[in-house]
User: Fold this.
Amino acid sequence: DGGITQSPKYLFRKEGQNVTLSCEQNLNHDAMYWYRQDPGQGLRLIYYSQIVNDFQKGDIAEGYSVSREKKESFPLTVTSAQKNPTAFYLCASSRGTWRTDTQYFGPGTRLTVL
Amino acid sequence: QQQVKQSPQSLIVQKGGISIINCAYENTAFDYFPWYQQFPGKGPALLIAIRPDVSEKKEGRFTISFNKSAKQFSLHIMDSQPGDSATYFCAAGGSYIPTFGRGTSLIVHP
Assistant:
């Protein structure tokens, strides 16, 4: 099966702890994205990467970090600097840019910070 | 700053009716306008998309209408079915960064 895997589905952490969310794709897509979804807010772009070893900040990058060491992997770290980290996090990928090729989304990780 | 305004926030229609969701954008440089469908607990999935060189695009029961001068686009779902009950997001953007609307929760009653 080709697709995007996000793990875990639910994640609980104590306030002040860093946490890393996994995103893996076997679609051979060049571009990968991280979004945050809050109730009534729609999706907001955190980071995106067009190629390996390169990534760019999105609209709400503060308190987050990413890496893109492999084409198929784009992990997101939610740091203690993120003021309100509890949210639903979605990873996506596309062969080219989001406007030239279909953007596929993973199933998401719901992070709750206690 | 919200660059894409989506309405209504929620919508209830009867089976067989027409569902209409509207979006308005501000940035005239935007050149790609997709709609996504999201079921609870799942990631969004691309439903249909349009570029500004056409005013309408139809795929099955789903139609996008695009008004470039008004900077508005809308999703029409014909013959709405209970299985269409989901949250719908519009988006707009240029090369790399999409901007999403806040979503519309659609409920289709049987």
Observations:
- Residues 64 and 78 of chain A are 5 Å apart (CA to CA).
- The mean pLDDT of chain A is 92.
- Chain A touches chain B through 24 residues (CB under 8 Å).
